[in-house]
User: What shape does this take?
Amino acid sequence: MTAPLGWGRRYLMCPPRYFRVAYQINPWMVEEVVADAGRAQEQWDNLVATLRAAGAMVEVQPPEEDWPDLVFTANAGIVNGSQFVPARFRHPERQGETAHDVAWFTQAGFDVTELPIGVCQEGAGDALPVGDALVAAYRFRSDAASHAYLSHVTGAAVRSIELVDERFYHLDLTLCPLDSRRAIVAPLGWDRYGCAVMEALIPEPLVLEPEEAMRFCANSVVVGSTVVMPACPPRVGRQLEAWGFDVAVCDVSEFLKAGGGCRCLTLALDVTLGS
Amino acid sequence: MASEVVEIEGHIIDSLILAKVMDLILAAGADYRVLDVEIGKTNLDMSRARLEVSTPDADALQSLLDELQVHGANRVITADAELVAADTDGVLPVGFYSTTNLPTSVRIGGRWVEVMQPEMDCGLVYEGFIYDGEGRLTAAPMHRIRIGDLVVVGTEGVRVSPPSRPRGAHPFEFMNSDVSSEKPKALLVRRVAERIRRAKASGAKVLAVCGPAVIHTGAGPSVAALVREGWIDVLFAGNGFATHDLESNVMGTSLGVSVHEGTAAEGGHSNHLRVINEIRRYGSISAAVDAGYIDGGVMYECVRRGVPFVLGGSVRDDGPLPDVYTDVVQAADAMRYLVPGVGVALMLASTLHAIATGNLLPAGVETFCVDINPAVATKLADRGSHQALGIVTDVGLFTSGLVEQLIATA
Assistant: This one.
């Protein structure tokens, strides 16, 4: 039996008032590239509207001038019921975001559980629930050593996946759970052990071709039966529709300049792991 | 060889991480030993594994450990061992680490320092700076301890490697059976001869420990031939063996019994005393050899070839011969001096000296205990010399077999 995802109806987002490509910490970022602030704001507003139209609630976190990537809320941390596990960022360029994330979640009534100092873990960007398990990635931004801690603090059964292609530096560029049996996947980002683990977890994968993965197709947001995507090549769209999903394409090209798509701009607040 | 213990925890079975880590170790040309694995009972439980990773050298180990760390396998941080200075000569500090004869290393200054010549029932003394771990670590019997010696205390930071068993068919499978009384002896002799050849070829020394029965049973000429032809490099024995060897050379008897006819010689019971007495007159066995009083036998060949020997005394010795160490502590130290470099030890019809020698040998020394009585080999193993292989046979047959293999077919 295929059941819809038990989460994905409530999101945290952060407006791109101070968003810019200020540094280079992934292969998509090129410092000479200038993001158009006006277009970025338009695209973000459109994404919020699309998510709301699909039936999602969107909560807004205030932007901070010194932290341009705060806009990518997916990396703030991991939500598990009323628990929030803040990220430990690999790069100093993003480490200052955590204080603002913790402040927001604290005022929102979450219990904050921190990971130990010294292990990196970049939030939901590198950890997505698939069925009962929490699929967590490591190598570029998160450490494998964080996974045992994640399991300790959340009680979740973690499946560790090694990322092997730096263009897909976060898990959410290679995986988008659609429902209880299906997910959009880009296995070219995983090592062969990871592929085997994912194969066992996802009975019906929609396997992206390399060029589809490069267009951030896996960095999509699922709200019930609507898939909000940065791009949707015809083959992918046909499969999603055949499975009964509606596809909404949101142009987030200004954010792609920094290596982030629809999923990166959102953090689901209604996730309870293991349920 | 360099090795380190790594620990990995999490859903490492379902995530195939443990399998991956093991694959990576082997792919790097290294090896691992699973120290323990706790596998979670349910899907939610985490599992934990500890692996000992070993590589041919320290650099390879470091780069492999760096790689494994990416996958969450972390080096188990081991604290440095505690070193306490001895405050009395000949006395180890309270709580001293008591050694085994197995390869042992100790964490000092963040490094694993290997014990140079493992010996059981000793303390470990470190000479060098404690902050860099570049010094020497030796097994020292308690009587050798001097005030100020830095001695390892407790078991923290001490690592003992069990004897390694190579994978696949062991070229010397009969090593796996402790005492063999029901094996074809010719085959055993041939294989022991192979081990001796191999040890000599690698530059290792062959040690023979002989009991008086070697002479009584008529094996003396075979052992003498092995010494003469350079197959035995060190000899340990007691007053009895040397006495009967010399007696048989001078008088043709061993404890008064003709070694040729096997009959008791007239007044033979005093033969050995007369020989001891004469050698005491010469002052030493080598002086007696030089004077021509002794012109054959095992001791003669040792003197002629310059093969060092240690004769350890006991309370029931007649004489004793002037070469016998009457202070047992000095005797053990003299044996200790000759043990480094020994690769094969032949314990020939000796019980007490075999056990004494077994106490001094590192576990890596291949030890063959030849005796007509299976209890001797068992005794050796019971006292910690687990590497000893007992061969239950007449020592005369065994040694003539060795001569045939090593000399006649050379």
Observations:
- Confidence is low (pLDDT under 50) at residues 164-178 of chain B.
- The first strand of chain B starts at residue 2 and ends at 10.
- The domain at 82-160 of chain B is CATH 2.40.420.10 (conserved putative lor/sdh protein from methanococcus maripaludis s2 fold).
